[in-house]
Fold:
Amino acid sequence: MSREPFEAMPDVMDAKQLAEALQISKAGAYNLLSSPDFPTLRIGGRKLVMKNELVEWLKSRTNKTS
Structure:
């Protein structure tokens, strides 16, 4: 089993790759990429997310019990 959940994914992901990584619809990925608190990288008209920022964003929203 891989230590990094998205190890096989590219370092910069588009909506299709994000949807695949999170197992959500492409529309859901576009919704995330349009959210003000999501770490979206805009290059021209493209919306992308860097893998390391996605992992940090997910960790910051994970419920942790102590």
User: Anything to note?
Assistant: Strands lie at 12-13, 40-43, 46-50. The chain is about 40% helix and 15% strand. The radius of gyration is 12 Å.
